[in-house]
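Closing statement on the zinc ion sub-project.
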Amino acid sequence: MLDVLVFSPHPDDAELGAGGSIYKATKNGLKVGIIDLTAGEMGSLGSIEIRLQEAEKAKNVLNVEFRENLEFPDGFLSFLDEKAVFTVAKKIREFEPKIVLIPYWEDRHPDHIAASNIVTKAIHYSKLKKMDFEHPHHTVDNVLYYEINGQFTPSFIMDISEEFPIKQKAIMSFQSQFKEFSKEYLPFPLIERCKYYGSLISSDYGEAFLMKNPFKLKDWQILF
Ligand SMILES: [Zn+2]
């Protein structure tokens, strides 16, 4: 049983959109795993080997329990690819996460859109009793969408002020992708986006999440 399972279209997307929140989870003792859908082999920068090494490095920075790569074809992800959907559904059943993080479905990169739809569909299949996969059916408690390029009006914003330096470090593990930036500093728009979301909750830095369902409050406590 896993607390949080994060799906990332390419190695580095999870860190870009939710690195601070992932670190906040592991820091608080939650069990977190990351599954990359592709190795990013179509990217102009870096080779498969380098990107996998970088992903491993970022995994260690964030203290994540495990990171897998499904090696789906980079640049050709499709939610009509039944095999890909079933592979993801099997992973969800295998790890039984309570919370799943998925990229937002609107984005300029077609792989990010496809990844969002593949995982959303897989979550649906993983709970269907009549779908016969290797593992018993599993229902995810909460599905949270995170931003890569596209933006939404958040359902909530995670305060990552304390975790922001580790988010930076995790992203800078992907040196082949962010060559032109120094080891200490993230690309400017990323910093500004985290600052913007932080400003909306009167904090220094934040990460935005979107839920399709209204957030369920079991009592008043969480609001104090
Ligand atoms: Zn990507």
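The first strand starts at residue 2 and ends at 8. With this model delivered, the sub-project is considered complete and its resources will be redirected to Aim 3.
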